[in-house]
Amino acid sequence: MDAPLPLQWRKLGKVFGPEMGPAWMKSHAQVPTPLHDEAAGIIRVYFSSRPENGVSLTSYVDLDAADPLRVLHVHQQPLLELGLPGSFDEHGIMPSCAVRHGALVYLYYSGWSRATTVPYTNSTGLAISTDGGRTFRRAGAGPILGKSLGDPYSATSPFVLHDGSGWRMWYCSGTGWPMVDGKYEHVYDIKEALSDDGIFWRPSGKISLEANQTEQALTRPWVTQVGDDWLMHYCQRQAGDFRDGKGAYRIAAARSRQLDDWQRIGADGPSSGMAHASDWDGLAQAYPGLLRVGSRLLMFYNGNGFGAGGFGVAVAEIDPEARTA
To answer: How far apart are CA 179 and CA 166, in angstroms?
Structure first.
């Protein structure tokens, strides 16, 4: 039995903000990235926070899987130090997808460094945990996916799916830096890459979702199987007035039967409901990360200011017999 699309989302509320963390978290709890520990009954959510303007570091909180608004533990220190001078993650480490691989946890992240003509340059990094996702070490000093002939501006914000047929990644490929209202603003498509081991990746060159006049920057894809469909949730914004303005990020989805040809289905997430401008997410909703817990599909996401105030969670009820991945 297929789930009705788009899904019917109900906001549960804000989960965590930087004011709930240690003193080094001056602002933001950005890009919530869930990892389910079914045996322990917890959801670990990785996120990035800012100890100062222009610097991002990654930490996590543990939530009660039965009540994802209940914070059980706040990790006190950053998981990784910033990269060395000149490295791809010299100024920022932002989680994007956590994948269990046997006894290991692979944490794929966006690394960024400040630039001159444009604000930043970013690539995809990998850190590996041997203790269930509590501590991590980099797979290496360089990115696993970065600028190339096919991705001349950036390759970042990946979602990684590992199944019996191998490893697949959907990531954001920068297509340029157009000047908008006197500033260079990044534009992204969503593309696909393949791997045999989850570490060494081959961009396929295939565009899964392409930016258009109404969706000019597509980022943070997240792929979930519900029934016979695969859903790709992502957030999109317009070219201008997107910093909590009319063009701000909203969450949408596309569907596919075979993970190949993606068809947009429009708004699908907290942004599809009513919100008041005074709400923490009343002006923008961004960076969705999804997790199936029983018959509930949870969506962790950021609100106003690209996660300046923290992240929250919404829930959609799905057929308990429906397949998920």
So the answer is: 39
Residue pointed to by tokens 């947009």: 264
Domain 10-314 in this protein, CATH class = mainly beta
For tokens 């490893």, what's the residue? 167
| First-to-final CA distance of the chain | 16
**Among residues 235, 284, 287, 250, which one has the least CA distance to residue 48?**
287
State how far the Cα of 156 lies from the Cα of 170, in Å rounded to an integer: 9
One digit per residue, the tens of pLDDT, for the chain of length 325 reads 355 667 899 999 999 999 999 999 999 999 999 999 999 999 999 999 999 999 999 999 999 999 999 999 999 999 999 999 999 999 999 999 999 999 999 999 999 999 999 999 999 999 999 999 999 999 999 999 999 999 999 999 999 999 877 999 999 999 999 898 888 988 999 999 999 999 999 999 999 999 988 788 899 999 999 988 999 999 998 776 777 777 788 999 999 999 999 999 988 988 655 556 668 898 899 999 999 999 999 999 999 999 999 999 999 998 766 565 6
> What phi, psi does 183 have (nearest 5°)?
-130, 150
